[in-house]
Design brief:
Largest sheet: 8 strands, mixed
Number of helices: 8
Distance between the termini: 105 Å
Oligomer: single chain
Radius of gyration: 29 Å
Mean pLDDT: 86
Low-confidence stretches: 235-241
């Protein structure tokens, strides 16, 4: 290009070059607090940009969903195949108070359950809990051989599959509609619903590996801080000091001095 043809090339840009600023200098760390249903309450940390003008940090955190392994929440390695979703409901100081938002099985666990020569049966049901949460439960089960069976396969007939699915839906709706969200989570963790389904379907066809593979929270009731604090139990009384006992002899000495 000939010199002087493009006059803009010689001029410097207005304001000069901006300095590169580390974005992490503007961030703040918050502690994630799990509900009292789980044994480990402090389950992680999360980042958010500091409050600047009208952009408030706590407002940006509300609604944030965290996915945590149940093994970390309960200090039990046998439960590592379960993933729990926790949703931020409120922020108190540097503590993010969460509530149950969903549950899932890990992909490797789900793949390990699937085997040849059997039938996979799935069912789902949308249930409303007593405290106003609309929840969808997904159940999975696999047929297994009868005792002393010689035949290689254990496929269920379509009429048996329909009967098993009907039983699944009945038990799921019965178990979930009678309790609130906290009680439902307490039922889901030890797999009591899956055990009930397996027992009830034994007369139709023998089943193995019956799990509630997924739980979705579809609708939530209007936010209530009292109910959230109930879910967190004694979360507000964690850092209270120890009570000091009053020593009576010292008080008597002081009284004696005054006289």
């Amino acid at each position: 290009m000939a010199v002087g043809k493009n006059k803009r090339l010689t001029k410097s840009k207005k304001g000069g070059k901006k300095k590169a600023v580390d974005p992490f200098l503007k961030k703040e760390w918050y502690d994630i607090k799990a509900p009292s249903v789980f044994s480990v309450r402090k389950c992680g940390k999360t980042l958010i940009t500091r409050t600047q003008g009208t952009k408030i940090a706590s407002e940006g955190l509300k609604g944030r969903v965290f996915e945590v392994s149940l093994a970390d929440l309960n200090n039990d390695e046998d439960q590592q195949y379960r993933k729990i979703k926790l949703c931020c409901e409120d922020v108190q100081g540097y503590n993010v108070l969460t509530n149950f938002h969903g549950m899932d099985l890990t992909r490797d666990k789900l793949c390990s359950l699937i085997k040849k020569w059997g039938t996979l049966i799935e069912a789902n049901e949308t249930v409303r809990t007593t405290d106003g949460y609309t929840i969808r439960l997904f159940c999975i089960a696999f047929t297994t051989k009868m005792p002393n069976q010689m035949k290689k396969t254990c496929y269920a007939q379509s009429s048996q599959i329909r009967a098993i699915r009907k039983k699944m839906v009945e038990i799921m709706s019965e178990e979930a509609s009678k309790c609130d969200l906290k009680e439902l989570v307490q039922k889901l963790i030890p797999e009591s619903i899956g055990a009930d389904i397996e027992k009830a379907c034994q007369c139709i066809f023998p089943l193995r590996d019956v799990y509630i593979r997924k739980v979705k929270v579809l609708k939530k009731p209007k936010f209530d801080i009292l109910k959230l604090m109930e879910m967190h139990g004694d979360s507000g009384n964690e850092d209270t000091g120890a009570g000091v006992s009053r020593e009576e002899p010292l008080v008597e000495e002081v009284k004696g001095l005054k006289v």
